[in-house]
Amino acid sequence: MDQLKLTQSDRNFFELVSRATFTNPFSPERVEIDRRISGRNDGASWPSIMPQAVKEVSTRLRTLEETAPIKIKDFAHPDRTIIEHALLFDAFHKYAYELDAIIDQQLASPDKSIDVPFAPELLAGLRTAGLARDRARRYLELFYQIRRAFFFIDKNLLGRSPSMQKLRMNLWNNIFTHDILHYERYLWDKMEDFSTLLLGPTGCGKGTAAAAIGQSGYIPFDENKNCFAESFTRTFIPINLSEYPESLIESELFGHTKGSFTGAVSAHEGIFSLCSPHGSIFLDEIGDISTQIQIKLLRVLQERTFSPVGNHEKLRFSGRVIAATNQNIDSLRSEGKFRDDFYYRLCSDCIAVPSLHQRIKEDPAELEQLVNRTIASIAGDNTEFAPMVMDVIKSRLGKHYAWPGNVRELEQCVRSVIIKRDYDGRHCQTANPNRSTIDISDEPDAQQLLARYCATLYDKYGTLGEVARRTALDRRTVKKHIERHCKNAD
Ligand SMILES: Nc1ncnc2c1ncn2[C@@H]1O[C@H](COP(=O)(O)OP(=O)(O)OP(=O)(O)O)[C@@H](O)[C@H]1O
C-alpha cells in the first residue's frame, strides 16, 4: 500500500500540535503554540484558549479518519511522527478529567489502590493506532504523571507574578527535563541522579514546591490489577533536619538496629529505607546539618547505598533527593560549613523560590489572591473576611511591608485578623512553626538535650508511643525525659 502523506496545511497544523505535546505548559512558548492551534488572536489567557485548541485537534484528526481509524505506520516519514504526537495530544486531553478524578480519589484515600476504569479503552486506542503494548502503557503512565505535575504545580502554588511563573516552569523542567520527548525516551526511570536544591527565605513555599516534585514522579501502571502500582501520596517523604539533635539525625535518616546505641531498644527504619524506588526524600533545612552528616549523605548520593546505624549491610536507595534551605548557601560554603563536594552533588538543579515581597512587587494582585485562598481554606466560601483582612494589611502594615515570614506569615496574619481584627507583624521574625523549639545556644548536656528532644516530639505528636517509636526509646524512658524537661523548664 502507498504510504499516506499529509496535505501541506495539515502538516503545518499537526507540526504545531507535535511541538505543543512536548513543550513545558508553563512556558510562554507553549502558550504561543496553543494560541496558534486554537486560531485565537484575541490575547485570551491560556486556560481559555486550551478547550478551543483541543477541539481543533480533535476535529482535524476525526476528518483524517473519516473512512478508517488512523494507523501511524500508514504515514510516510516525517508525517508518521507528527501524527503520533497529535494522537497523543488528543488522547491526553480526552482523558484529562478522568485522570484528575483518579488524583482526587487518591488524595481522599491515600492508601487505597484506585481502579482506573478508562485505562483499557485508552490503551486499546493507542494500540489500535499502532503503538506497541509497552509504549502504550508508558504513555498512560506519562499522562498520569503530567496530570499530577500540573495539579500540584498549578493548584498548590498560587500566583501569576513573573517569578512565580518562572518557578512553575523550573519545577516542570525538574520533573520532565526541558524536553519531555527525551524524558519519555531515555530518562523516565532514571531521574534518581538528578538531585534538587531549593533556595529561598523561610515560609516562601520551598516545602510546597518540593512536594510538587515528589508527588509527580513516575509510577508504573499494573495492567493486571488495572491500577497504578503505588499511591503518589506515599512517594514523598519529608524530614525537617533542624528538628533532630546531631546524635539522632543519622538514625532518622538511615535507621538503626536494636541495641546499636544506649536506648535503642528496638530496630528503627530510617527514611531512606521507607522511600519507595520511584519516590523522593525531602531534606528540609539542609544548611543546618554537620559536615559529618553531609559526608554520609554524599556517600548515599554517590554510591546509592547506605547502612543503618549498627549494621554494615548495604541497602540500596533508588529514589530522588530534594533538599532545601533558607540560609545563604554561598556563605555557608565559604565559611566551610557546607562542603563543596556535597553541594555539587546536590545541585543538579538549583531552584530559587521567590519571597512574597518580590512577588507582590511584581504583581500587587498576588497579595489578595493569597489572602482569598487562605480565607477559603479556613472558612470556606465567604465574602466578608477578605475586605477586612485587606483593610488591616493596608492600614497597619502599609504597601511596602517586607513580609519577612513570607506566605506563612500572611496565613498567620489572616488568622490574626479573623480573631482580633488586627495584625502588626511584630512577632513574625521568630514565628516559624517548622523550626524546632530546641535551642542549643545554651550548650545543654546530652541528657538535657535528649529530654528536650522528647518534649519537642511530644508537643508535636501528642503521644508517648509515637515519641518512643521515633526515638527508639521505651515509653517509660520517654516519660521520664519529658517529666525531667518540664520540671527544669518550670
Ligand atoms: N505560592 C503559594 N501559593 C499558595 N500557598 C503557598 C505558596 N507558597 C507557600 N504557600 C503556603 O505557605 C505555607 C508555607 O509554605 P512552605 O512550608 O512550603 O514554606 P517553606 O519555604 O518550606 O518554609 P520553611 O523555610 O520554614 O521550611 C504553607 O502553608 C504553604 O501552603
TrEMBL record:
InterPro entries documented for this protein: AAA+_ATPase, P-loop_NTPase, Sigma_54_int
- Tell me the Gene Ontology biological-process terms attached to this UniProt entry: regulation of DNA-templated transcription
**Short name of one Pfam family:** Sigma54_activat
Which PROSITE patterns does the UniProt entry name for this protein?
Answer: SIGMA54_INTERACT_4
The entry lists its GO molecular-function terms as: ATP binding
Keywords associated with the record: ATP-binding, Nucleotide-binding
Record-annotated Sigma-54 factor interaction domain positions: 157-419
Nucleotide-binding is among the record's keywords: yes
Q: Which domain of life is it from?
A: Bacteria
Which protein, by its recorded name, is this?
Answer: Transcriptional regulatory protein ZraR
Organism expressing this protein natively:
Anaerohalosphaera lusitana
Lineage of origin:
Bacteria, Pseudomonadati, Planctomycetota, Phycisphaerae, Sedimentisphaerales
What gene is this protein translated from?
zraR_2
